[in-house]
Amino acid sequence: MASPNNFSFQYEGLSPPKSPFFNKSNCNYWRNRMYIYFRSIDFDLWYIITKNTLKITKIIDGREVEKDIEEYDEKDKITFTKNGRVRNIFMCGLNRNIYIIMLRRLDMLMNYGTC
Q1: Is 2 a member of any domain?
Q2: Per-residue DSSP letters for 80-114?
Q3: CB 3.0–4.6 Å: which of 13, 35, 55, 57 could bond 20 by disulfide?
């Protein structure tokens, strides 16, 4: 007789609703799987990752400045949601320690141009 649990076990990251999980030993494999995973959810998500957060801006006196959250229209809210979605997927695919390290490196890259 088959055990009722035979089919309930799901391998980490092999289920469409679950993002691939990084285990420190499969960086290239994980990166490629994340690329496919993000693109399968929404085409723009991988663009957000490669180009950094999508900024929500407006033009004032010929200069591009960020909008205040009170100024967001429906399109801006969709963009804002996509930015959050990318972070959430990454958080689900990394353990806490690795996620913190990656955030620090990303912050250094954005602020100082180097990791």
Answers
A1: no
A2: HHHHHHHHHHHHHHS-HHHHHHHHHHHHHHHHHS-
A3: 13
Please check whether residue 64 is in contact with residue 87, taking contact to mean a CB–CB distance below 8 angstroms. Answer: no
Query: Is 34 or 7 the better-scoring residue by pLDDT?
Result: 34
Average pLDDT (80-99) is: 84
The confidence score (pLDDT) of residue 99 equals 80
Decide if 76 contacts 68 (C-beta within 8 A).
no
Domain assignment present for residue 60? The answer is yes
State how far the Cα of 113 lies from the Cα of 19, in Å rounded to an integer: 29
Q: What is the mean pLDDT of residues 29-51?
A: 85
Q: Does residue 10 lie within any of the structural domains?
A: no
Length of the chain as a residue count: 115
At residue 111, the pLDDT reads: 66
End-to-end CA, the chain: 56
Average pLDDT over residues 39-65: 86
55 within a domain of the structure (yes/no):
yes
Distance separating alpha carbons of residues 19 and 82, to the nearest angstrom: 16
Collapsed DSSP state (helix, strand, coil) of residue 52: coil
